[in-house]
Specification:
3 domains; Oxid_FAD_bind_N; Vanillyl-alcohol Oxidase, Chain A, domain 3; 9 helices; binds flavin-adenine dinucleotide; 5-stranded antiparallel β-sheet; about 25% strand
Length: about 400
């Protein structure tokens, strides 16, 4: 029995074999071998999006294929299947460029792009999938490069839905954006003790502020009732914390002017919004970078009801983390090249996560808590209902391992 390290620790792979691949040829050989032996194949990059364990099949570990090459003239990066967004950011930054990455540098390029990619500046940039130039794939019979010109239908599926069964992405060519004028950081308000209902005023202030913003400002909010655990910083332990993450492409002066009403509406405990080096962009949402067990889901909505927002800050009980990302702007416009991204008709994406997996919070209880928060937003759900990137952990009703 063997397993591969994973950001998601609530699900454990139990493959009959693991192949650690270093190039496309290795992947082709692994797929041919799996076909010969009748083994199901699972691909593992970082495990952020792990939902179903590999049970008795062949696990292909792409982590070593993390090479990133940047063409600063074409403004593209070619990222191997094992690359994370942190790898691409680091390679692009010396050229004054940035990829359309999301909130956590440890997320893998391939999994994120397959879901469409809700980037830090999604309202200015559009979905990350809009910036993909080509996807390189391995199959048991060899390799293929898919682009808008070579196979428009499959290229659309690869950007929003993911590769067909039996295909493994070996590299992606993605467009890069300029980082001039990038501003970002967080506005933090401690709402009180985690075990008493919080004041929703700061959350309402954020929601009201987003209703009239130009496309160059993207923001999201998170509400985290931190447990009283010794490994957490003292100022967070046992506290309910609201954080607004902001990324603007409009430069410091314009961003400060646009932020002024939100800065004035709430007595913020911390404000780190300032010119942003993309290499420091993890500070925008300050998400945990250590592996843990989490499950969750999301709903795409055309607006935010006040009752739903109040439920987010007033609830007590088992820990639930709520994140709301503001969409619209360029994320709401049709792409130049057809894709299958969900969320173009949504104004916000509400995602709810819960830690699970010990005696205190069994899986079913964690799902109930998540669904209880999501229900508060369901009345405004769009036709597409949810975005696949924010479904985490074991399926409802399915044991975790
Ligand atoms: C802390 C955190 C922050 C996040 N922030 C954002 C965000 O800001 N925006 C956003 O859009 N999403 C975000 N996500 C969601 C994330 O994009 C998805 O979970 C994504 O699936 C992770 O991809 P991965 O490669 O890191 O993970 P993995 O779990 O390794 O892979 C995810 C899926 O893709 C498959 N896969 C991976 N590599 C390949 C390959 N080479 N070929 C074929 N299939 C492959 C895997 O089999 C698996 O099914 C976040 C997730 C977490 C946990």
């Amino acid at each position: 029995m063997t397993s591969t390290r994973s950001f998601q620790t609530g699900i454990t792979h139990r493959p009959s074999a693991v192949v650690t691949v270093t190039g496309a040829d290795d992947v082709v050989a692994a797929l041919a071998r799996a076909g010969h032996d009748g083994l199901a194949v699972t691909v593992h990059a970082t495990g952020h999006g792990l939902r179903r364990p590999c049970d008795g099949g062949l696990l292909i570990d792409t982590a070593p294929m993390a090479e990133v090459t940047v063409d600063p003239v074409a403004r593209t990066a070619r990222a191997g299947a094992g690359a994370t967004w942190g790898d691409v950011v680091a390679a692009a930054a010396p050229h004054g460029l940035r990829p359309p990455h999301g909130s956590a540098p440890s997320v893998g390029v391939v999994g994120y792009l397959s879901g469409g990619g809700l980037g830090l500046a999604v309202r200015a940039d559009g979905w990350a999938a809009d910036h993909v130039h080509a996807v390189e794939l391995a199959r048991a019979g060899g390799t293929v490069r898919v682009s808008a010109a070579s196979d428009p239908r499959y290229f659309a599926r690869l950007r929003g839905t993911g590769p067909d069964d039996g295909d493994v992405v070996t590299a992606v060519v993605v467009g890069l954006l300029g980082s001039d004028g990038l501003v970002g950081g967080g506005l933090v308000r401690v709402l009180g003790d985690a075990d008493t209902p919080g004041d929703p005023a700061a959350l309402h202030a954020w929601a009201d502020w987003t209703s009239a913003l130009p496309d160059d400002v993207t923001s999201g909010v998170s509400v985290v009732p931190y447990p009283d655990l010794p490994f957490l910083p003292a100022h967070l332990r046992g506290r309910r914390v609201l954080r607004v993450g902001v990324v603007s492409t409009g430069g410091p002066g314009r961003t400060d002017a646009l932020l002024a009403p939100l800065r004035a509406a709430v007595a913020w405990d911390d404000d780190t919004v300032a010119p942003l080096d993309p290499r420091a962009s993890a500070r925008v949402y300050a998400e945990p970078e250590f592996p843990h067990a989490y499950l969750g889901d999301d709903v795409l909505v055309d607006g935010l009801d006040r009752d739903g927002l109040e439920r987010v800050v007033s609830r007590t009980g088992p820990m639930v983390v709520t994140g709301i990302r503001h969409l619209g702007g360029r994320a709401g416009r049709a792409p130049a090249v057809a894709d299958t991204v969900r969320g173009r008709d949504a104004a916000y994406c509400v995602n709810v996560l819960a830690p699970f997996g010990d005696d205190a919070v069994p899986t079913q209880l964690a799902w109930r808590e998540v669904d209880d928060v999501l229900d508060g937003f369901a009345a405004r759900a769009t036709r597409e209902r949810s975005h696949p990137a924010f479904r985490f952990g074991p399926h409802r009703g399915v044991p975790a391992s």
